[in-house]
């Protein structure tokens, strides 16, 4: 068996190529998003650093000339305003991978689907793609939002040359790997190629391998996967959460039972916590208490709060938690009375996200599932939408947002959190920038550093910017406990793989466990030493 991490250097490690029993499985196709700040787009020192880190992406597309031309000539993040920050995108390094040799693509969660259109529409992959139903829908919404923010809804008839479009962002032609976003048409075509599956559904691949998704507990539809071939079982855990106080179905640890290889990825990353070591990371409860205290302070002083965050996922828990906290302060959320506080969600896909999430009760906890059989919606934001306590702002145009009556003080959830120089978040920051009592809070774990974000805001802004990551993913200590509980007494050798920067250097070795760390581009060979093999004999052979 061979495992290779395909993510680029200095990128989150979530994409793997697994070869088992002459079958090739690709796990995840994430999208790396980087914001080019106006002051840095012509910084040649940073260009040189990027050149050393990013392989030649154009080589991947060489056999697809027409699609390559469309991709390479697509202007990289042209902005309507000359001082706007620009977002560029890249996918894992597939330059040495024959995409036609991939037998199946497995997707573990919504955010790990976002790079898939590059694989299916530009690289020509035509094999099977598996993901849960809710992951597919939320990924479709996020793709639409990305295109509306950073790209074009259709292919443009008039395009700049590659050199011209690169020059507009300060990138040189050798910065291969970073490109503009795909079109909305390509995103929809890609989504239609994904096969929807359910938790614990058995999928057979070429009568040789059995593939089973298990709940990962991190977001609606997030899945861990097991690959079973003969007496060999591989467990893939990505974006997993053991939290019991959030809305998704709890993590199903059955994925670990009998596994001979366990691959961990997308763990809590020390780098997301401003340099704190693993044992110094602020407990989740403390982060939430600090978050709520800032929200309460701003609202009590008759000022406003902005949350730039994804329009699906953690926001479904954040809305009822903030509502409950404010209730303890005597502040009610609702639209029926002028004295009540109103929340807003500003995104072109906000309405889709809020409405769809409340028909996904079967992907939630038992408590939320029980609410499907009574005249209540599983998630509290459904009630707030009906009463006006939560309102949707669909427009991205500042002039249109300005025409909508915004009742202040208020709390606003915006969509794209990587670029503050465009879209609704830009309009709200400009509106409330004059007071430091107005607060903009970033809670997504992969939010860029505050110093970078601050540069995309006008220099005269007094608004308070805070970065308080709310991260439910597995920590190393939780992984340690899981392995000790489920695998320490396994009769056969269990191979456990971690990202290199998160490897268990000081852990005790339990029983037959073997630790290995992986890094981008490294190929790890694992000898499973199987002594028995399952075979099928037809009646004709027996005779």
TrEMBL record:
Residues annotated as domain Beta-Casp: 315-453
Short name of any one Pfam family annotated for the protein: Lactamase_B_6
SUPFAM superfamilies documented for this protein: Metallo-hydrolase/oxidoreductase
One Gene Ontology term from the biological process aspect of the record: snRNA 3'-end processing
Subcellular location, principal: cytoplasm
Keywords, comma-separated and alphabetical: Cytoplasm, Nucleus
Record keyword Lipid biosynthesis present: no
Statement: the UniProt record of this protein carries the keyword Cytoplasm: yes
Domain of life: Eukaryota
One GO location term (cellular component): integrator complex
Subcellular location, record wording: Cytoplasm; Nucleus
SMART domains: Beta-Casp
Family indicated by similarity: Belongs to the metallo-beta-lactamase superfamily. RNA-metabolizing metallo-beta-lactamase-like family. INTS9 subfamily.
Annotated protein name in UniProt: Beta-Casp domain-containing protein
Lineage: Eukaryota, Fungi, Fungi incertae sedis, Mucoromycota, Mucoromycotina
């Amino acid at each position: 068996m061979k495992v290779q991490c395909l993510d680029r250097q200095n990128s989150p490690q979530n994409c793997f190529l697994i070869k088992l029993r002459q079958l090739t499985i690709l796990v995840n196709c994430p999208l790396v998003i980087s914001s080019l700040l106006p002051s840095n787009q012509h910084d040649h020192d940073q260009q040189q650093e990027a050149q050393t880190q990013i392989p030649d992406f154009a080589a991947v597309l060489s056999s697809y000339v027409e699609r390559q031309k469309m991709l390479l000539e697509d202007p990289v993040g042209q902005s309507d305003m000359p001082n706007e920050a620009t977002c560029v995108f890249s996918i894992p390094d597939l330059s040495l991978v024959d995409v036609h040799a991939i037998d199946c693509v497995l997707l573990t969660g919504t955010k790990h689907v976002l790079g898939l259109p590059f694989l299916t529409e530009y690289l020509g992959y035509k094999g099977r793609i598996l993901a849960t139903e809710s992951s597919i829908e939320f990924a479709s919404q996020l793709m639409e939002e990305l295109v509306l923010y950073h790209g074009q809804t259709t292919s443009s008839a008039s395009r700049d040359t590659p050199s011209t479009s690169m020059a507009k962002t300060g990138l040189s032609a050798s910065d291969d790997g970073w490109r503009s976003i795909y079109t909305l048409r390509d995103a929809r075509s890609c989504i239609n190629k994904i096969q929807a599956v359910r938790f614990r559904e058995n999928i057979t691949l070429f009568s040789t391998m059995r593939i089973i998704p298990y709940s990962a507990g991190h977001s609606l539809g997030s899945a861990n996967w097991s690959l079973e071939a003969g007496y060999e079982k591989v467990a893939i855990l990505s974006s997993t959460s053991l939290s019991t106080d959030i809305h998704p179905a709890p993590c199903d640890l059955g994925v670990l039972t009998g596994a001979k290889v366990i691959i961990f990825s997308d763990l809590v990353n020390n780098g997301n916590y401003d340099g704190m070591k693993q044992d110094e990371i602020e407990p989740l409860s403390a982060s939430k208490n600090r978050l709520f205290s800032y929200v309460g302070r701003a609202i009590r002083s008759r000022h406003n709060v902005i949350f730039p965050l994804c329009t699906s996922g953690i926001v479904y828990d954040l809305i009822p938690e903030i509502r409950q906290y404010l209730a303890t302060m005597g502040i009610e959320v609702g639209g029926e009375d002028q004295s009540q506080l109103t929340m807003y969600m500003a995104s072109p896909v906000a309405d889709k996200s809020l409405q769809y999430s409340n028909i996904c009760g079967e992907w939630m906890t038992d408590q939320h599932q029980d609410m499907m059989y009574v005249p209540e919606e599983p998630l509290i934001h459904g009630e707030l939408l009906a009463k006006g306590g939560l309102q949707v702002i669909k427009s991205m145009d500042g002039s249109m947002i300005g025409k909508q009556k915004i009742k202040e003080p208020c709390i606003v959830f915006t969509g794209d959190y990587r670029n503050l120089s465009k879209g609704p978040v830009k309009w709200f920051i400009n509106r409330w920038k004059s007071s430091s009592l107005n607060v903009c809070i970033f809670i997504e774990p992969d939010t860029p550093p505050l110093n970078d974000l601050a540069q995309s805001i006008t220099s005269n802004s007094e608004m308070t910017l805070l970065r308080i990551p709310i991260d439910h993913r597995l920590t190393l200590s939780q992984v340690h406990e899981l392995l000790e509980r489920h695998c320490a007494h396994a009769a056969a050798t269990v191979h456990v793989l971690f990202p290199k920067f998160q490897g268990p250097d000081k852990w005790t070795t339990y029983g037959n466990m073997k630790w290995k760390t992986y890094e981008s581009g490294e190929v790890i060979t694992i000898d499973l030493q199987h002594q028995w093999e399952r075979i099928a004999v037809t009646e004709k052979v027996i005779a």
